[in-house]
Amino acid sequence: MTTDHDRRQFLRYTRTENWPMLARHPVAATVHLDLLAGMLAVPAAEVAAGIEALRAEAGRAAAELLADAGTRAAIEALPFRAGDRVVAVGDSITADRIGWFEVLTAAVATAGPGRYGLHNLGLSGNTTADVLERFDLLEAARPTHVLLMLGTNDARRHGRTPG
């Protein structure tokens, strides 16, 4: 049986829109909600509410960080310009709906000039080799800047251990 905590964690780190096949052959946002809902065996409205709750949590974290004058000044001084497209690439640390890039996105929306776009291409479980395999998707995002955070899964063994 899946607990509320398990469902929250699943939604926190699972971004079907970044799955290579679905990114290369895009589908409507409602299909992503339905897919997540099917995997969790809950209504799509519950998935949407869960994702919104995580977005709000990232917003609260950003607001807390921006209460510090030094942090606010750093956000306001980011080197991005009007029309730039900043794309984050990485594993679950980047894909995390309340992680560093989502908090940065919320902080920029609050304190930054807001003239540039931020796009998260993080995908849980990705290795450096996985990111290289889906380089076409990074290129298709047409970034002017790429924020890269990789390597965690390169140094880790996945799956069951033999014996």
Could you describe the 3D structure shown?
It comes from Actinoplanes auranticolor. This is SGNH hydrolase-type esterase domain-containing protein. Residues 88-160 form the SGNH hydrolase-type esterase domain. This protein has one domain (4-155). Helices cover 53% and strands 9% of the residues. It contains 9 helices and 3 strands. The protein has helices spanning 4-13, 20-24, 29-40, 44-66, 69-76, 92-95, 100-111, 128-133, 135-140, and strands spanning 85-90, 117-120, 145-149. Strands 2-1-3 form a 3-stranded parallel beta sheet. α3 (29-40) crosses α4 (44-66) and α4 (44-66) crosses α7. The longest helix has 23 residues, at 44-66. The two termini are 27 Å apart. The mean pLDDT is 93.
Low-confidence stretches: none
- Beta strands, count: 3
Beta-strand proportion? 5-15%
Order the strands across the largest sheet as they lie in space: 2-1-3
- Going by helix content, strand content and strand pairing, the class is mainly alpha
- H-E string: HHHHHEHHEHHE
> Which term fits the overall shape?
globular
For the termini, the CA-CA separation is 27 Å
Number of domains: 1
Average pLDDT, all residues: 93
User: Count of helices?
Assistant: 9
Report the sheet with the most strands, covering strand number, pairing sense and barrel closure.
3 strands, parallel
* Helix percent band: 40-55%
Organism: Actinoplanes auranticolor
Protein name: SGNH hydrolase-type esterase domain-containing protein
Pfam families: Lipase_GDSL_2
